[in-house]
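Final report, closing paragraph on structural work. Over the funding period we assembled a curated collection of sequence-structure pairs, and we close with a single example.
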Amino acid sequence: MYRILIVDDEALVRRGIKRSINWNELDIEMVAEAENGVEALEQVLENVPDIILLDICMPKMDGLEFASIVKQKYPQIRIVIITGFDDFEYARSALRAGVDDYILKPITREMVEAVVKTQIEKIAEERSKRVPAKPDEGKAAAAVLNAVLRREKRAGQEQELSAFLDYAQIKDQNIYFVIMKDYLSRCEIWADAADDHLAEFAILNIAGELLRDTRTGFAFETYKSELAMVVSCAARHSLEEMLMDIYHNILDFIEIPVDFGVSGKGTLADLPTLAEQAREALECTFVLSKQNIIHYGDLKEHRSGDFHYPEQTERELLTVMYSSDAEKSNALIEEFFSQLRQVTPDVTRCKSMLLRLLLSISNTMESMSSRLHPEGEHRDASFDPVKVLEQFETLEQAEEWVKKLYQETLSYVASMKSRSGQLFLKITQYIEKNYGDSDLNLKKCSEDLFLSSGYISMILKKESGKTFVDYLNEFRIERAAELLEEPESKVYEVATRVGFTHQTYFSSVFKKLIGISPKQFKEQK
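Its predicted structure, as stored:
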C-alpha cells in the first residue's frame, strides 16, 4: 500500500480530508497526521510516507521550510501543498523549490482524490524502475557484525562475512570502525521527544544511506547500543570527507551535532580491537571537544609524559572566592582548565582531577557559609561534585559551570559584607521560599521576619530599587515563565502555583513585565 501523511494545523481540515475519501480503494494507508511542521518532521522520520498533503501556513515551521527539509533527505516523497488564493504566489515559489503539486482552497473531495491519484501514478512509475531490496538484509548484516564484535565463533561465519561484503559492496581491507556520539540535548527541535530512539534511528538512516550510495560502508547499532559504522577507505582524507558529509547531512536535516571516534585500519576479523580503539578515541571528545573527528592513531600526539595536579592554581582559585575580583577569578579558572587539558587523552585522569577541584570548591563554600553566618543560618551552597561531574559532556561545559558558580558566589559574598546586604538577602530568600502563597504581602513578611514594614521597604528600595509588591510580582512572573515552558502546563494552573488568585490580574502583570500575554508566551514555545 501507499502511505500518506496529512499535515494541517486545523483539526477540522484534517478530519475532513480523512473522512471524505475511501483510502482503501486507492490502496492508501493513512500512517499519521500532524498539526505543525515539527510534529510532521518526526512522523516523516518514523514512517517515511509516500505522499504528504501539506498546509503551507503552519505554526513553528511553515510548509515551505518543512518541504525543503523533507525533499533534501527524501526526494522520493511526493509533497502536495494546500494553499489559499492569497498565498498562491507563495505556492508557486514552493513548486519551484521541489514541491510536486498544489490544491487551492476551498478544497473538495474530487480535488484531493485527483491529485493523489496523479501522485500514485508517478510513484508507481518510479518504483517500477527500482530493484527491490531483499527483506531484513540490514538486520542480517548488523547481526553478522555484532557476532564478530562479541567474538562469537559460528559455523558458516566466513560465508556470512562474505555475504556482508557483497551486500555493503566493499572489500575486506582498509576497514575503519567508527562510533558516533550525538548531542541530542543541544537540539531544540527534539526537546519534546518522548525518547531518543527516533533520533538515533534518523542518524543511522542518514549515515547508512550515504555509505550505501557511495559504496563505502554500513551503519548499524552495536550490541552495546552504540551508533556505529564499518567504513572501507584507502585514504584518510577520503574517510574524513565522507564523515564530514555525514555530519553536515545529520546537522542540516535533524539539527543534531555528532562526533566521530575512529579506529585504526584493519579487516573485519579485527573488529573487536578496532571497536575498542574507536571507543577510546570517542572518550576523548570530553577534552578534544573542538574536533568532530578523533582518530585513535592521533592520540599519542596529545599524550604528555609527566603531569602533576595544578595545586598552586587551585589554592589561588579557592582564596579568590572570598574576594570581589571577578576578573582575577575568571583568569585563574581559565589557567586551571588550560593546565588540565595537558593530560589529554587520559580522560579518566582528567575527570579525576576535575572531581578533585569540585570537591575542594564544595568544601570551601561550606566553610565560607559558616563564617558568613555564625548564627547557624547557613546559605545552602552545597552541591554533589560527583553528580555535577556526570552532567558535563565536555571540559568546556565544566569550565563554564565553574565560572558561573564563581560569579554567583562572588555576588553573594559581596552582598553579605554589609548589614543591609544581609537583610536584603534574608528578605529575598523569604520571598523566594513563600512566593507561591497567595496571602503573602508586606505585612506577613514583616511579622514572619520580625522587621518593620517600613524597614523592609527601605532595604528593598536601596538594594534593588523596587517596592515589595514590584519585587514579589517580578519574581512570581519569572517563575511563571519557567513553568509555562513545560509542555503540559496550563495558564490558570501556573497562575495559582505562583501565588495569583485571579487569572485576569496574573495576565495583566505578566503582559506588563514580559510584553505579551501568558497564552501568547506559551504558544511561542
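Strands lie at 2-7, 28-34, 51-55, 78-83, 101-104, 175-182, 217-221, 227-232, 258-262, 293-295. Residues 311-415 form one domain. We thank the funder for supporting this effort.
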